[in-house]
Amino acid sequence: MERTTKELSIADVAGWGSALATFGLTQGALYLQAYWGHFGLDPFQYVAVSEIALAGLAGIGLALGLMLVAIFLGDWLGDKLTSISPNRSVLGCLAPIALFLGLGAIIWWANAWVVLIGALLTVVCLAAVSIAPTVPAAIKKSPWLTYAVVMLVYVSIASNWLGAERATKITQGEEKRIANIAIDSKSLTGLNLIGRLGDTYVFWDKARKTTLLLQASDLKSLELRRAPSAATRDTP
């Protein structure tokens, strides 16, 4: 059987590149909206959408890459399992069980229940698309349907969760570095640097549980140092 090959044109590359860039910017925006929203801030009031989204994409780039690898690996594994001969059907039954048990253990260990909810919602959306009478048959039978739903639903939920989770670690005092700043004749110590929005530095004051915003022009000095470990803090 002859194998047909299709060469990608410049228009195809531009189209796919634009779609991927738009997707990445959207995920970055969701990530940073959840991150800054945890501190009561809307990042889009300070910085252009494109800049803030690119910064967010840098923060979750590794996570998105791992998700893509997991999606394609799961598809490859599914093809392998369905092609198992009948006399090895036991392996075909045990492999998915072991896979789901392993994923459940990872989710429990990482306390990532939001990710599990995202996976369940993805399955629900796939089922809804499959049984909806108004959806064209070409979309239902498309091999890209699963990937599209996973990227639109699951990855969006995961991006939002990653941003909120990172912000929660800061408010709970789990950040690895603390900041000492000087403004005019006053010094503030033990702060956590949340980030920078335009010309404004944002800090978290754990002692007062407040978000502190400072203009870059008002900041005389900024010192970042590693936060002491729990053992060090307990040492008299």
What can you tell me about this protein's structure?
The protein is of the alpha+beta class and 236 residues long. Helix content is 59%, strand content 16%. The protein has 7 helices and 5 strands. The chain has a 5-stranded antiparallel β-sheet with strand order 4-3-2-1-5, covered by helices on one side. A hairpin with a 2-residue loop joins strand 2 and strand 3. Helix 1 (10-37) runs parallel beside helix 6 (145-171) and helix 4 packs antiparallel against helix 6 (145-171). The termini are far apart. 16% of the residues are buried. Residues 231-236 have low confidence and may be disordered.
Can I get a quick summary?
This protein has helices at 10-37, 49-82, 89-110, 113-131, 137-140, 145-171, 230-234; strands spanning 177-183, 186-197, 200-205, 210-215, 221-226. By secondary structure, it is of the alpha+beta class.
